[in-house]
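> example.struct
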């Protein structure tokens, strides 16, 4: 079992940057595909990006391509989301998730473990 804890959320002005971190417990972090999702009030949880177990492959939603970067450090059991050029529409609770599989997935139900979420608010 994996426990995930996100950090790094906060309030930022449009055009600014934030880096989210997701730290995992356990010694098998490198066995999991990791994903970032977000959920705005009144909306469904949506895919932001994901990374393969080795970190060699990433997928990102079209809405964040060119602005957000996903990475991981398996030695530190940590997964990152660097967010640049933030927009008010990026405002949401951001969740990290872990999937016990080698395939990167875009659907929330395919992930096995979730963090508690961290709020990101972008003011205009």
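> example.seq
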């Amino acid at each position: 079992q994996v426990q995930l804890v996100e950090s790094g959320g906060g309030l930022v002005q449009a055009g600014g940057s934030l880096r989210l971190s997701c730290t995992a417990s356990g010694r098998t972090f490198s066995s999991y595909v990791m994903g970032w999702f977000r959920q705005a009030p009144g909306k469904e949880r949506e895919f932001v990006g994901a990374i393969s177990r080795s970190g060699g492959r990433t997928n990102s939603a079209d809405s964040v391509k060119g602005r957000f970067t996903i990475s991981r450090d398996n030695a530190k059991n940590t997964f990152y989301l660097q967010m640049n050029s933030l927009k008010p529409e990026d405002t949401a609770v951001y969740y990290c998730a872990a999937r016990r599989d080698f395939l990167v997935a875009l659907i929330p139900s395919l992930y096995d473990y979730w963090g508690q979420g961290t709020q990101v608010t972008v003011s205009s």
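> remarks
The chain is about 0% helix and 50% strand.
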